[in-house]
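Duplicate of #3305? Posting structure anyway:
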């Protein structure tokens, strides 16, 4: 008889080792190496099965896509991210940090779909039925067409789906369900893979869309096997700082729509509220112009958002001046400080510089460089910029303003909001941009020369 051995294999990539290790030596994933018997003999060849009935291959022209169109959920911002709504038979994975509002958003989606006359099954494997009822009462999500089940066994969930025949299934969450066919606790790699694969099979066979809630690890990755993101049709990320009420939903993967759309929400005491026009969320309401502020138009997906950048420059008595940023990258601010001092002649090496955005939004794109630089220059010179001035552009180390992507869309949004001075010309250096920005200052002061 051929000798068999029981090596340890990684559930992520299949890497094998003779002893257990905590970290895979191939994909470097933690906790994915498990013991699995693997015979060394050649496996039997799989026999061909002749397809019958509907399983016979047909020309692609024989199929129709009308029954697979998007169906709106009633939550406009969520539909925007999904590409117009939920496709029948689709499996959507919504992930996010604890407390960001995933369950609140999906309970609102379930209530809106139920109000339209469709039957919705909400499976709560984390909270009790009473807790979900209290949230639904607070958010106005009570409806007779919204069914609530509180089970953690995969077989019981499949029984609820087969009995009620819902039009939409929401599972909160996939890491808390477990299958009796496998050993191990809920949330393990094998359990998550089995639960997800079974629910995906049911969704494809019955054409019932399923929304899965996914937990994330401390580094922001979706907990469980990496193959989970490949199995589902749509992967959405629910982002937001728990210190602020603003929330964003982004599509990281979408087989039925774009992946560059962003949905804006605001968390309130009555639940989660859509923000279809967030143009006023990231700007201050100061009546008079204040030095150290400048507005830019940033892109969140396909949406252009006006964002106000604030800066404060004060003399420092410390040998190493402080550089404090909030909402922008510290390395980019350090580069802009060097460009301002070297190319524009503004001394900043002996001053404390504080830079922040309004509303808690984070700016990661280089198109906000010019606004950050103008805000710092305004704070250093104590000259306020006009409230009708917007700055869009990337700044190079040579001090030149470079064009940014989708500039016409940004300019159109700035024009719609009433900004009459738009500083975005390419081939202009930072000194000329500062001079032009100061020329629109409401205070009649002597303009600096560069």
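Output from current build:
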């Amino acid at each position: 008889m051929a000798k068999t051995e029981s090596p340890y294999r990684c559930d992520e990539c299949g890497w094998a080792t003779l002893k257990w290790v905590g970290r895979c030596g191939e994909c470097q994933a933690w906790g994915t190496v498990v013991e699995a018997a693997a015979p060394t003999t050649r496996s039997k060849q799989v026999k061909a099965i002749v397809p019958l009935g509907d399983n016979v291959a047909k020309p692609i022209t024989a199929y129709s896509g009308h029954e697979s169109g998007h169906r709106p959920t009633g939550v406009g911002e969520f539909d925007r991210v999904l590409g117009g709504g939920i496709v029948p038979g689709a499996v959507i994975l919504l992930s996010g940090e604890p407390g960001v509002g995933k369950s609140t958003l999906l309970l609102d989606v379930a209530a809106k779909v139920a109000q339209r006359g469709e039957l919705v099954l909400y499976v709560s494997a984390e909270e009790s039925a009473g807790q979900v009822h209290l949230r639904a009462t607070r958010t106005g999500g009570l409806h007779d067409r919204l069914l609530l089940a509180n089970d953690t066994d995969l077989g019981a969930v499949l029984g609820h789906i087969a009995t009620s025949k819902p039009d939409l299934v929401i599972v909160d969450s996939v890491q808390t369900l477990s299958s009796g066919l496998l050993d191990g606790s809920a949330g393990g790699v094998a359990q998550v893979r089995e639960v997800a694969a079974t629910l995906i099979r049911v969704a494809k066979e019955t054409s019932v869309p399923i929304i899965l809630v996914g937990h994330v690890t401390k580094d922001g990755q979706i907990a469980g096997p990496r193959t989970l993101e490949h199995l589902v049709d749509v992967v959405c990320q629910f982002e937001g700082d728990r210190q602020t009420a603003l929330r964003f939903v982004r599509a990281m993967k979408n087989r039925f729509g774009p992946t560059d759309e962003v949905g804006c929400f605001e968390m309130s005491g009555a639940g989660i509220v859509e923000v279809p026009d967030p143009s006023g969320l990231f700007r201050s309401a100061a009546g008079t112009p204040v030095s150290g502020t400048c507005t830019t138009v940033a892109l969140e997906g396909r949406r252009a958002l006006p964002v106000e950048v604030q800066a404060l420059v004060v003399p420092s008595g410390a040998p190493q001046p402080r550089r404090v940023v909030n909402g922008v990258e510290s390395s980019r601010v350090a580069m802009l400080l060097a460009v301002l001092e070297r190319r524009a002649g503004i001394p900043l090496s002996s001053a404390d510089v504080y830079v922040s955005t309004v509303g808690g939004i984070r700016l990661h794109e280089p198109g906000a460089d010019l606004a950050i630089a103008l805000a710092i220059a305004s704070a250093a010179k104590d000259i306020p910029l006009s409230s009708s001035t917007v700055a869009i552009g990337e700044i190079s180390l040579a001090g030149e303003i470079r064009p940014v992507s989708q500039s016409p869309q940004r300019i159109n949004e700035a024009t719609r909001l009433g900004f009459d001075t738009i500083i975005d010309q390419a081939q202009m250096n930072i000194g000329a941009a500062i001079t032009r920005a100061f020329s629109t200052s409401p205070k009649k002061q002597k303009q600096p020369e560069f």
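Confirmed duplicate; merging threads. The mean pLDDT is 87. The chain has ten helices and 22 strands.
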